[in-house]
């Protein structure tokens, strides 16, 4: 979503907003960027004397020497301010876990509410988002959704109640710094008291903060270095909020504990499955806050990829997972569909931006109309996404799935205890055969939907190889690169087809509000998409050949050699995609595998199962009848 029109930065930043460059169409407005040095001071009086010394200020004085020969430096004291800051969060620390701080500041003349992120800090210099609004008489509940704070707060918190976490009182003595008459910075000397708990003395902090115009950082830096050196200042290690939490014994909860996320040297297939799922659920949750804000499209993209990887892993390892795992796969498909609706619009808006700079000047207004229409659709899709993430259904998905992953693989499950290096070759072979079959069908029909199915199968094979890459080192990387090129080509084809269909749908649904010129230009854009899809289709046969030829044979031979090496060591026998321990006294040498280390993988489980007596052969573990290869549909149809 685009930032609200009334965005302003706090304090001095308001005066410098016009000199900045906007970050992006989705991201923070430039006026919301705060840049400042923060230093801890044992005593503020030496700093006051340093700033007030008359010898520093005339042209040619000590400050002029460090800011440029002949520069006129003026440091002007401002009226002392008394600030009362209340920091708020939800009971489950929703704001803090998202990397933000919410503050209500009361001062002479009224109150304002500010939302800050952690930003980036280097040697005391911190850059971060600082969005501020005047606090309405009705408090936070009357803030609305259109302002720079209200919009973000609604996305991060929803309807959860907010409560006060800390109260901080500050006596601030500010000084305006001017170079050649231009105000470039404000030095604030803060004497702060942080209320901790009843009956406990407050925490006292003395701090020097230098908020600077981002375009004047290098001009001001020498002055700050001299101030720091002369007055013995040290870069602040903690913000006031962080220091208050530490003193109060409070702690923002970290990432949820999902269980072990590192593989052992020779993992079982159950261990591998749970590690893959834990990592990707962690990635999904890590990108949730950025997805909610909707300011960085890559946050949403990464969250969506994590959901798709989990769905692929749940299908791939279905035989070694609990029965309820397939329910979570269906629920993740629901989330991925909602994410995909926003992602598709992000991709299309990026393309419209590219074309706007390339078309004739007289056509740009028509593309601007199209961009506004797509932006409105994205806004609506983002609202639906927020409703999804705020729903009880989503909370149940996350809590239930996390609970299952914490439990880990069942110790009583024979399939889950099988060594991964013995099971994985069969799982990969099945997915490669699906790619080959889909490629033949697509080459015969030339139908867009068949190319789309081919892409889905390439994606499943790629994910499967990435899931097991740690087990095989770098041996899978070359083949994965070929697979990625094929998937990217097919993905661009799908994006072009979806975009052309969307444009057609827009004309049908909204043609009455679009100008003839806009409809004409949209037709040209749709034709461009179709031509691009046709051009990419011509590349597909060569790409597919690369993933079905010699490189696959080499990889398959390597995987089979690893299986041959590992099977006698563990005393397991293959039963297709299932593994079972060899029942004593049957010798390990009775295991039936590929005829030679360099041959292709076994064509099926039939021959391998003959090595195990029927009485000792365990029943295949299936989950509600689901097969390892998931059906086409849901989020599988979206772009990568």
Strand order of the largest sheet: 1-7-5-4-3-8-9-10
The CATH fourth-level homologous superfamily of the largest domain: Hypothetical Protein Pfu-838710-001
Helix amount: 40-55%
Number of helices: 21
Specify the structural class: alpha+beta
Q: If you average the pLDDT, what whole number results?
A: 80
- The tally of domains stands at 3
Could you say what the CATH topology of the largest domain is called? Hypothetical Protein Pfu-838710-001
Strand content bin: 15-25%
Quick one: CATH class of the largest domain?
Answer: Mainly Beta
Radius of gyration: 31 Å
Shape: globular
Largest sheet: 8 strands, antiparallel, barrel
End-to-end separation? 21 Å
Low-confidence stretches: 1-14, 17-26, 574-640
CATH architectural grouping of the largest domain: Beta Barrel
Explain what the structure shows:
This protein has 21 helices and 13 strands. By secondary structure, the chain is an alpha+beta fold. The protein folds into three domains: 35-248, Beta Barrel (Hypothetical Protein Pfu-838710-001), CATH 2.40.320; 265-405, CHAD domain (Alpha solenoid), CATH 1.40.20; 419-604, Alpha solenoid (CHAD domain), CATH 1.40.20.10. The strands form two sheets. The chain has an eight-stranded antiparallel beta barrel, surrounded by four helices. A two-stranded antiparallel ribbon has the order 12-13. A hairpin with a 2-residue loop joins strand 4 and strand 5. Helix 15 (448-467) packs across helix 17 (477-510). The longest helix is centred in the C-terminal third of the chain and has 34 residues, at 477-510. The radius of gyration is 31 Å and the shape is globular. The two termini are 21 Å apart.
